[in-house]
Amino acid sequence: MNFLFSDNLMMASIDDGTSLPTNALVLPNIFYPVIEQMNKSGYKDIQSDLRTTLFKLEEIYPGFSCNFIQSFLNRDMSSLSKTTNMNELTLKLEKYCDKTPYFISSLHNEQIFYELNIRSKNLKRILSRIPDDINEKREFLETIKEIASAIKKTLDSVTNILQYIKTNDGRQALENEKKEFIKYSKNFSNTLKAYFRDSKRDDVYIAANYLLIQIDYLLRTIKLYCEIDTLDECLYPLLSQHQNQIKMMLSSRYSSNNQQRQSSNSSNIRPSSSSTYETNYS
């Protein structure tokens, strides 16, 4: 097993064509279901430790889990490695995974929570059909229509749930995740348009995987502010990176806008003018 822990494995990024959402889905869609099966084989005592260890490795070395599998395939199953598309595989496996812990607890008897669970599950299920349906244009077009309808219904449910979140911080957090979900929904739509021009299937798989992750982030935020149970952070391997990326993006925009304004102000300063002028931030 030493070959699995080479320097190449401990990279912060992967060069095998996999993407950020795929890296995030390898643990819940490939590793965790296998770990759950260990209970039936008499290894229940090490389930939690193994799960936590893999989660921490993924947090420290983003892409570790995906590279672990790829290294194993490259060494012992080279023929399978050449035909395995991890972006496609994680998407396809979504429909076989038990994602019950992601959904809102049955303790909430309100119809709107039940609808959110049903609608988000349905959206995930339809997205996972893409690798099978993409081969037939007519069938794929019907799948796209189903996805568009499922996205709208999921968003409607999220909007309705805002009334159940009592704090301003909670409502703002959910609004932010809702915006992210809308952004990736639009990206998915644009990717589909491009696909019918360039036939790049992998881009469609990646965009769909991003959408799967955003559904989980939405549900996590609702669970965080509507449930009293402790949240299982191991379900969201790349959550901290997702949040850091948003902060870095906002910081970058702020810095860029600030520099542009300073440059503009500097170019407009005249020799006779005073050195006092205002810098506005937007």
Automatic annotation (TrEMBL):
It holds the Pfam family PDCD10_N. This is Programmed cell death protein 10 dimerisation domain-containing protein. Gene3D superfamilies: 1.20.120.1950. Belongs to the PDCD10 family. The keyword Cytoplasm applies. Residues 23-75 form the Programmed cell death protein 10 dimerisation domain. One of its GO terms (cellular component) is FAR/SIN/STRIPAK complex. Keywords: Cell membrane, Cytoplasm, Membrane. InterPro entries: PDCD10, PDCD10_Homolog, PDCD10_N. Residues 253-275 have a biased composition (Low complexity). It is found in: Cell membrane; Cytoplasm. The keyword Cytoplasm applies. One of its GO terms (molecular function) is protein kinase binding. Its main location: membrane. It is a peripheral membrane protein. One of its GO terms (biological process) is regulation of Golgi organization. Residues 253-282 are annotated as: Disordered.
